[in-house]
Specification:
The complex is a heterodimer of chains A (314) and B (546). Chain A has 314 residues and is mostly helical. Chain A is built from twelve helices and no strands. Classes of the chains: A mainly alpha (314), B alpha+beta (546).
């Protein structure tokens, strides 16, 4: 296991290197560079050429990449070209918001998806099963931006309620904080919970028909023990895999929209603004951190396989 | 057992949703007192779509920054303030930090007598010291320094010959040449009086910590892309003002969230479209207030006049006649827009009504005549039409909505277009700066003096001359209007230039939609200056009843 972990960690190095190259060069293929934008919109310098020189954008692209990556390996993610603030500082201010939103959404997706999925499998072809399956289809079919918009608009008309406009700190008001993040997290996690629900149901149905389950029941074990001790670990492997690959979409894709609608100044808003402004420094730094998160999550997923199925050895 | 919790879990989630949705019920909202006597206290929350990216007022021109700068910094002069004055009324100018001022007979020398005892905000490192003539000298020279002032506004300071401190409270400003917009620059937020010691370590005022002024509000907290909070300046020179204790600017990008916040009283002021206003009138608690003004940002087609085919006036006129502006006004804007021109209705003192234009000029501003457009194209050597590029940006919702109409109308007269839609960033980096071929569809911002719309947009080499005009007949008129101090004389030249510009059709304006704002029921005496550069410092007189 240790050798496997070391191997996987070492493998992240070329992966991150590839990500850094792709991000660095692809963002520069977009029309309109940072210096042009900064001069056009905010008169940051008398001329584009002068600003390019100040920002080091007049150097050969390969050299710019080398300068940037050399600093990255020393722990310096660079600076925003617009605000000149360190990427790490912006990141530190916004990461907790996205992390809280993502974790709550994931928690909801997993608990709701697994519980309802198992319920649906155990009560196959009952009214409860049909309702649960309909709920799963609805979760998959309803786009989260549409649900979020309705959740913002309708309560404002019916109940005179709308989301808070400023972040309620967890330390100051835990309940207020949970209510503020709970609603967008429910919406964000709803789509993923549909996938988890359907997958859990399908896998649980298959596992619950296995001989070893029949044997467990024949031994007189109660249903809870059968499901938790004998079935769960087996039907959860594909679920864990799906959750692992869904996290990037949940964190980046979903959060961008939900943060915007619910006024949460997190990473999603930051990256969208940075792309709009062609803030190369910010885009590179943030994308690299996202890549680290995604790689780490997938490593955790892989490691969890051996826990869920002891036959799997690395 | 575990499974039994599944429905309970779902129920719990619904309960969370219900709790979230039932807090802050509408009964919390509404005027608590209808007394019309101004009273101090309370909080005013303004919403904006865009957050500022920089704060140095001398360095750049950016609408969202100007709004916030105007809370903090005062100028020598000010536009008429108070609820009795219109939001677009720019005359007569009033003294601000200057108690009074004199102008020499030739208009080149301005002597300002400062108000005594005006203090800066009591924040380090300035610590509430008095505003002096030295600060005025420092600030005006900084605003005129081409190395600092990189904006288009710099052209108003080109003729500054010197600033002389006569005594602690008297300062003399000398220009080498007169220029009518000069009177405005003393009142614009782009020329505030700044304390030199508040500069940040880069020598600029870009950080919010350097926002130390003598205005009605003091910077308290800034969270990028989220909010900027200001508090009442207890030492403000206008005793008793401002009325509100706290002023907050929140940035909300999502339109549904903005409207929901307005509906539920979380914000007090919001720029809205007519449709949104109708929505609020229908769905918000009663008592909401609305304000409308003529627009300031019309959309138009910029025709690249130094390249074929638009270097031929007949082709430009064909484009003008191909546009069915009436259907845009009637259908798209539901009648909530007007025909517009370069020196538009918003510049009230200079406004040239359509009927005052020559019939020929009026034709190219308003008429829809595809047959005449085809004839002009044929006459210009394009009997079978032509193909050109039509560039625009997805950053402007209105541009995108107009695009299909424009393409169709141009095609109707034989002009085929290769559409090039750029994201806002790419558009700013190129077409916005005049780097395009063919036609560029975009929006215009015009300042309070017609010089901006004339000299700024059509004088060779100016930043805003995006149609690349260099016209030997127009250029002398542009210079002449800059030299005249007599209002009537200048107006005559401004109108003559406007007529000529309309006939040349370098810019084909589409429509000027009106602007609308929503205000909470409990806000009173709310008045701002909505002509760029914006001035929201007038909110010192706004008060709330709750």
């Amino acid at each position: 296991m240790r050798a496997y972990l070391v191997r996987r960690v070492l493998l992240t190095i070329p992966t991150l290197a590839l990500v850094s190259v792709l991000v660095f060069f692809l963002i520069r293929l977009l029309p309109g560079d940072t210096a042009e934008l900064m001069v056009a919109e905010n008169h940051y310098a008398p001329s584009v050429e002068q600003l390019r020189e100040e920002l080091g954008l007049n150097q050969p692209v390969a050299l710019q990449y080398w300068n940037w990556i050399s600093r990255v390996v020393q722990g310096d993610l660079g600076r925003s070209l617009w605000t000149r603030k360190p990427v790490v500082a912006e990141f530190a201010a916004r990461w907790p918001i996205t992390a809280e939103l993502g974790l709550l959404a994931l928690l909801f997706a997993l608990t709701n998806g697994i519980l309802v999925g198992v319920y649906s499998a155990v009560r196959q072809d009952t009214v409860g099963d049909y309702l649960a399956r309909s709920l799963a289809i609805a979760a998959l079919a309803l786009p989260n931006f549409w649900v979020a918009t309705l959740v913002v608009v309708l309560p404002s008309i019916w109940f005179g309620w709308s989301p808070a406009l400023r972040i309620i700190p967890m330390a100051a008001d835990p309940l207020g904080n949970l209510l503020q993040f709970g609603l967008p997290a429910l919406i964000l996690g709803f789509g993923l919970s549909g996938i988890v629900m359907r997958l859990t149901r399908a896998m649980a149905l298959e596992v619950l028909r296995q001989d070893y389950i029949r044997t467990a029941r024949a031994k007189g074990l109660d249903e809870r023990a059968v499901i938790l001790r004998h079935a769960a670990k087996n039907f959860l492997i594909p679920v864990v895999t799906v959750v692992g690959v869904s996290i990037p979409g949940l964190l980046i894709g979903g959060a961008v929209i939900l943060e915007n609608i619910f006024q949460l100044p997190g990473m999603g808003q930051l990256i969208i603004e940075a792309i709009g402004k062609r803030d190369y420094g910010m885009i590179q730094g943030v994308t690299l951190v996202f890549a680290v998160v995604v790689i780490s999550v997938n490593l955790l997923v892989d490691v969890s396989y051996s826990y869920l199925d002891p036959r799997i050895r690395f | 057992m575990l499974l039994r919790f599944a429905p309970l879990f779902c129920g719990g989630l619904l309960a969370v949703l219900a709790v979230a949705c039932t807090s802050n019920r509408p009964s919390d909202i509404g005027p608590s007192d209808v007394s019309e006597t101004p009273r101090s206290g309370g909080r005013l929350v303004l919403a904006s779509v865009t957050a500022p990216t920089a704060f140095d007022p001398h360095k750049r021109v950016q609408g969202p920054s100007q709004v916030e700068q105007s809370f903090v910094w005062r100028r020598l002069l000010r536009f008429p303030s108070g609820p009795q004055h219109g939001w677009m009324q720019m005359f007569p100018l009033e003294g601000d930090l200057a108690e009074r001022w004199e102008t020499s007979a030739d208009g080149k020398i301005w002597t300002f007598y400062l108000r005594q005892g005006v203090k800066y905000h009591n924040l380090p490192p300035v610590n509430g010291r008095e505003v002096t003539a030295d600060d005025v000298k420092f600030s005006l020279e900084r605003a005129a320094n081409p190395k600092v002032n990189l904006s288009g506004d710099a052209r108003y300071w080109e003729q500054l010959a010197g600033v002389e401190v006569l005594d602690k409270y008297t300062v003399r400003v000398q220009f080498s040449q007169i220029s009518p917009p000069q009177q405005f620059v003393f009142a614009w937020i782009t020329a505030p009086i700044l304390p030199p010691e508040a500069r940040d370590k880069d020598g600029t005022y870009e950080t919010t910590e350097s926002m130390i002024g003598q205005g009605p509000f003091m910077h308290k907290e800034y969270i990028p892309e989220s909010r900027h909070v200001f508090v009442r300046n207890p030492d403000y020179y206008r005793k008793g003002l401002p009325y509100v204790d706290e002023l907050e600017q929140v940035y909300i990008k999502d339109p549904a969230t903005r409207l929901a916040a307005m509906r539920t009283g979380k914000i007090d002021f919001l720029a809205v479209t007519l449709q949104e206003q109708k929505d609020l009138e229908r769905t918000a608690p009663p008592g909401g207030q609305f304000h409308s003004e003529t627009g300031t940002h019309p959309h138009g087609l910029m025709l690249r006049s130094d390249e074929p085919p638009f270097n031929d006036v007949r082709v430009r006129r064909a484009v003008a006649l191909a546009m069915d502006r009436k259907s845009i006004i009637d259908s798209y804007w539901e009648g909530d827009a007007v025909y517009t021109n370069m020196v538009a209705a918003l510049l009230a003192d200079w406004f040239k009504p359509l009927e005052a234009y020559s019939p020929e000029a009026r034709k190219y501003l308003t008429e829809y005549n595809p047959q005449e457009a085809k004839r002009l194209l044929a006459e210009a050597g394009y009997p079978n039409g032509l193909t050109t590029t039509l560039t625009t940006t997805s950053g402007y919702e209105v541009s995108m909505a107009y695009l299909a109409f424009i393409q169709k109308w141009l095609e109707n007269v034989g002009i085929k277009t290769n559409v090039n839609v750029l994201d806002y960033g790419a558009w700013l980096g190129g077409p916005f700066r005049g780097d395009y071929h063919g036609i560029n569809l975009g929006t215009f911002t015009r300042l309070a003096d017609p010089d901006d719309a004339l000299y700024g947009f059509f004088y060779p080499g100016q930043q805003e001359n995006k149609t690349h005009v260099n016209d030997p007949q127009l250029t002398p008129l542009l210079l002449k209007q800059r030299q005249l101090t007599d209002y009537e004389e200048r107006k005559k030249v401004v109108w003559e230039a406007s007529d000529y510009i309309a006939k040349q059709a370098w810019v084909v304006f589409l429509a000027e939609p009106n602007q609308h704002w929503a205000l909470s029921p409990w806000v009173r005496d709310f008045s701002i200056k909505t002509l760029p550069p914006y001035d929201y410092g007038t909110l010192e007189r706004a008060w709330v009843t709750r």
